[in-house]
Amino acid sequence: MKKCVLVVLLILSMSFTETAFALSWDNCVFELLRGTKEVVGLNAFDDYTVGDVIEVAKLTLGYWLPQGGQKHYGIAEGVKYFVDGQQVTDKYLCATVGEHKITLRKDDLVAERGFHVKPKLNGNKISKITLVKPPAQTRLRSNIDLFKPEDIVVKCSFSDGKQDQLLGYNELAFYSVPRDKAVRKFDEAAPIYPGYVFTVPEEKDLIIRVASESIRVPITVVSATEGASNIQMLKEPSQLEYVVGEGFKMSDYVVRCYYPDGSFKDYSGKDIVITANGVRMYNGYQFTNAGEKKLVISFGDFKRQYTLYVKAKTEVVKTPKNWWYRVGEGFRMSEFTIRCNYEGGTFKDYSGEELSITANGVKMYEGYKFQQPGNKKLTVKYGSFAKEYTLKVVDANSPIIEMSKEPLTFNYRVGEGFRMSDYAVICKYSDGSSKEITGEGLSITANGVKMYEGYSFKQAGTKKLVVKYGDFSKQYTLNVKNAGEADEISVTIDGNLVKFDQPPIIKEGRTLVPLRAIFTQLGASIDWNQDTQIVTAKKDNNVVTMQIGNNIYKVNSSEKKLDVPAQLINSRTLIPVRAVAESFDCDVSWHGDINLVEITRGDASSVNNPYAELARDVLYYTNEERAKHGLTALTWEDDVAKVAQKYSEYMAKNNFLAHDGIDGSTPKTRIDDGEIKYTSLGENIGMGTENAKDIVRAWMESEGHRANILQPEFTHLGVGVARGDNGYLFWTQNFISY
């Protein structure tokens, strides 16, 4: 099997407009490289008929190895098969005319392939198709009217003498393209289906397809407000003040259209467009910055504007490592910090004497000495914000005993010897000395049975493990399994075992870990919104938001995709462990032989890019153009954005505009140097314009740049923006697909 490599190179050209910006035209549209995954064994495009059976389990996932050569994976190697998102274990019956997609997954390898199913026909060779009955409605309101092809009837004639055949809508395939746009292949058009809703007013052609033949029918998508005599806000927002991290309420907004015949209709939710400072809102959207926002409600030609206020969020960002004191020991105010978040991502921290802290109602101050042992209710306050903790005070001469060593895993198998050496406690004395006790110096029991080094468990099951030394005791849960049973998963952070009340699980080949336990140990604060089912984790200047059941999550303003969405299990939010690495710059390793996830914190650093919002705006306007052509939205990719930003800064510094750098770099080598895995790539660059909308418009007016923006294969985008000494902004768009 040959690997298909497609490289498109255009001649370098510079074009300046009256707004003084330039574009480089030598676009590398896309290149299939090593690392490509493909579905092997599926028939060519258009080779299936209703009633045909695809033996899915015989398909293989062909993987072009990065070092060269090819490897195939099939059902025996654990490949899972999906057709249109539904898992298939053996065979797939082609029952529905139109476009379909088959997906093969093995661990992190994913390959997809589209195929078309045509209707059963009387003849083998079509001579022509004729529209017998057109669609009842060819003028549709954007975001409102549903595409209804039920009236469409097509006559199919054959050159082999077979009788003409009438085909109804469920035997036809439908696509849409801009009016009179030339289409060489059907995959250049956007598939549509009964119930499809057009989002952008535009003159279009409806393409009706039978096998390799097609008919075009002009249709017009008009503004949602066309024909309305009056438009009003039926429901004004009940809330125009939010707190950072609070979910936006789309249900607060309802638009009513009145028509000349006296009728009216209400529109809300996804039917209307709401933006805050240009950012598209959705139900549950969480504001990350405080300040005043310009809120615009748009419905067709109707617009209404409000001013929305987002208040700073207050949170505790620093607490003591140890929550115990001795009688007579001085209280440490400096161990507490509260942070207030303000507009533009800025914040201010308050600590020590700036806070109000009480213990059982007694005001604390630096050096305050506790006189009596016992548990204290500690309340930390700043303004109206307050949070409570429990503090333990012990006698002045009593040692503080705590665990100093714990096992990496609490999993055993029947017959396996117990390891006393996995446990140790440390006694800390008032004079600063300490003593560690390990192994046989401790009293350890499992379900009341005394443990010793090499003790062999005879029965599988859960054991209550108690470690004791003097008055100190700590309890764990031990899991003993039969030989051949999978172990529970353990997680360490920087070598320290993480304790869970809900253990990690493996689902759809992905390891899911409890978010709160992991992120808290990484030093992040956690907030949970029961109404929106959204969890927010914040550490330093990083904010991570995830929603239960949603496979899209955000790290700051960047959207990322989860292989398996966040989910609630036993009231705990579990997420794929790889999301931990992407969220807080950690290295994550999986040790399958002992079912251990090893997380190591990195030295995270962030670059303060003053043009970050412009870069994100490019994604917005790029996806707006893709939506007009029925293409799926691109997802922001941080690693790709870093490559784009670095190259924009390089061009700005050296005052040149070209895809090939002065240093000999190319779009491919730059992406490769970023250690980014991909199957195809593309790059657009430009210079001069001051806003994202204009640069995207300019790219759309250039054939090569437009091809990148509207390339169906691309799935992710990163954008870089930098200002040169000539005063102009340099823009870089890097596209990839995985």
User: What spatial order of strands do you see in the largest sheet?
Assistant: 1-58-60-59-57
Q: Per the principal axes of the C-alpha atoms, what is the gross shape?
A: globular
Helix content: under 10%
User: Which sheet architecture does the biggest sheet show?
Assistant: 5 strands, mixed
Regions with pLDDT < 50 over 5+ consecutive residues? 1-37, 603-608
| Secondary structure category | mainly beta
The N- and C-terminal alpha carbons lie at a distance of 21 Å
Please tell me how large the radius of gyration is: 31 Å
Blueprint of the fold:
Layout: E1 22-23, E2 37-40, E3 48-49, E4 53-54, E5 60-64, E6 70-73, E7 80-83, E8 86-88, E9 92-93, E10 98-106, E11 109-118, E12 126-133, E13 139-141, E14 153-158, E15 165-167, E16 173-178, E17 190-192, E18 202-210, E19 213-222, E20 230-235, E21 241-243, E22 254-258, E23 264-268, E24 273-276, E25 279-280, E26 291-299, E27 302-311, E28 314-318, E29 324-326, E30 337-341, E31 347-351, E32 356-359, E33 362-363, E34 374-382, E35 385-394, E36 400-405, E37 411-413, E38 424-428, E39 434-438, E40 443-446, E41 449-450, E42 461-469, E43 472-481, E44 490-493, E45 496-497, E46 505-507, E47 510-514, H1 515-521, E48 525-529, E49 534-539, E50 542-547, E51 552-555, E52 558-561, E53 567-569, E54 572-576, H2 578-584, E55 586-591, E56 596-601, H3 612-628, E57 635-636, H4 638-654, H5 667-673, E58 680-687, H6 692-700, H7 703-709, E59 716-723, E60 729-737
Parallel strand pairs: 3-11, 13-19, 21-27, 29-35, 37-43, 44-56, 57-59
Antiparallel strand pairs: 1-58, 2-5, 4-9, 5-6, 7-8, 7-10, 10-11, 12-14, 14-15, 16-17, 16-18, 18-19, 20-22, 22-23, 24-25, 24-26, 26-27, 28-30, 30-31, 32-33, 32-34, 34-35, 36-38, 38-39, 40-41, 40-42, 42-43, 44-45, 46-47, 47-54, 48-49, 49-50, 50-51, 51-52, 53-54, 55-56, 58-60, 59-60
Helix pairs in contact: 3-6
